[in-house]
From TrEMBL:
<dbReference type="InterPro" id="IPR050942">
    <property type="entry name" value="F-box_BR-signaling"/>
</dbReference>
<dbReference type="InterPro" id="IPR005174">
    <property type="entry name" value="KIB1-4_b-propeller"/>
</dbReference>
<dbReference type="Pfam" id="PF03478">
    <property type="entry name" value="Beta-prop_KIB1-4"/>
</dbReference>
<protein>
    <recommendedName>
        <fullName>KIB1-4 beta-propeller domain-containing protein</fullName>
    </recommendedName>
</protein>
<feature type="domain" description="KIB1-4 beta-propeller">
    <location>
        <begin position="25"/>
        <end position="283"/>
    </location>
</feature>
Amino acid sequence: MSWGNHLEEMQLHRRYSSAVTCKLYHPADVDKSYGVSFPKSCFLVCCGASHGWLILANDISNLVLCNPVTMAMIPLPPVTDFTDVKAVCGGYHRGTYFYEAKRLAIWFYQKAVLSCSPSKDGAYVVMVIHNDSACISFVKAGQSKWQVASTLSCSDRYLDCAYHKGRFYTVTLKGMVEKWNLDGANGPTREVVVIARPLPVECILARHLVSTPWGDLLQVRAKPAVEYPDGIAFKIYKVDPDGCNVVQENVLGDHALFLGLNHSACLHTKNLPGIRRHCIYFSAPVITHAFDFLLQLRVWGGARTYDLERRRFERVVPFSDTKKLVYGICPSEVWITQNL
C-alpha cells in the first residue's frame, strides 16, 4: 500500500486532507492499482502493518488499529499517555519542543506491530518503537494506558521488533537482541539474547527480525557495500543464544521475505503467484541514524525487490521520486500481508 501522494501533500505543500485515499498494488502486477479511502481524520501517517491490520496515527497523533478491508477501527490510548508529551493549545509539547497536533506523529512514532490479529480472539498486544527510537512501549487489548518497557541511552536506538513463539523480540542499532515477557507480576522483564557490540566501521542501515515458518528467528541486516551493484548488501543471520550466525545464502528456499514498516514476514511462494522465491521485498522503514548516507542513494525509498543471488534492487511499486521527500524519516509504502 502506498500513500506517497498524501505524504507529498503534507511534506512539500503542508496540506492535510481530512480524508485520505491510498493505492493498493500487488507486487506481481503493479500496472494495476486500487484505491482505498479511509474515513475522515483517521489517517495522518501509517506506523505499521500486522496480520492484515494497519496501525495508523490520526489527525491528533493518536494511534488507531484499522482493518483496510472492513474499515473496522480500534482506538489505542492517546499520545498524551506518554510521559514526555503534554497537550497545549494548538498541539503538543514534547520536552522543550512544540509540535502541531497533526505533525507530532511524524516524528514521535517509528514502528508499531501486533502480536496477532484483533479479529482472532481479541487477546492482542501492540508494541511501538517511539521517541526517536529510544523507547519501546506496549498496550494489551482493553487496556487504557501505554506501559513503557524500555528506554535506551543516547548511544543506541531500537530498529525493529517482532513477535516470535509467543514473545516480542527487539533489536537495536548496536545489535542487541532482547526477548520480552510482558506478563510478569512486577511489570515487563527482558532477557538479553544477543549483547550489544560496538558499531562496525561500515554503517548499519537497517536490522529486521523475522519469524520463520520453520521456527527460526532471523536477523536481516542492510549495510553499504561498494562492491555490490547498487551499493547495498543484505545479509541474513540466525539469532541463537550464542549470538547471530550467518546462514547459508539459500536459507530461504522457496520463501520470500517482506521487510519494512510492516511486521516482517517470511512467506512460502507456492501459494503466492508472481512472488519470486529467495527474494527480499523491501519497503524503506524509518531510518534517521544514517540520514546523510541515504541522501546519496538513488536506490533507497519506495518498495523494491532485492535479489539475493544477483544482489540487486528492482523497483516494484511506483512512488514519488523526489529528493524533497525525506524517505528515511517518512516512509510512503508498507506491505500488507495475509493474516499469519
